[in-house]
Write a structure and sequence with these properties.
The chain has about 110 residues and is of the alpha+beta class. The chain contains 3 helices and 4 strands.
Length: about 110
């Protein structure tokens, strides 16, 4: 857990995992299944780090001022990626939309 009480996960690199017991066994098991990738990150000189597994956006708001653009604003702590948050909140269940001048998507 980080200082905010969120679960963390490793960003693989050189050094030792700081976890113990069951968490260490889980993380080592995942690393073993991806040994080539982990070895490549170590060889590239990356150092072992940890990041929160849960993003906690704050001050989130949205507005739809016109027919097409949606404006979403929020803040994230360092080490979090806005694209990950947007991927989670912008999932759609409707059909793909296109304009008259754009061809429809072909599957």
């Amino acid at each position: 857990m980080d200082e905010a009480g969120r679960p963390t996960g490793p960003l693989w690199g050189r050094g030792r995992l700081s976890t113990t017991d069951e968490a260490l066994a889980l993380e080592m098991g995942v690393a073993e299944r991806h040994a080539i990738l982990c070895g490549g990150m170590e060889h590239a000189g990356l150092d072992q780090e940890r990041r929160a597994l849960v993003a906690s956006p704050v001050d989130m708001s949205w507005q739809w001022p016109q027919a097409h653009p949606l404006v979403i604003t929020f803040s994230l702590p360092a080490g979090n990626y806005a694209t990950s948050v947007l991927n989670e909140i912008l999932r759609t269940t409707g059909p793909d939309r296109h304009t008259e001048n754009e061809p429809a998507a072909v599957e």
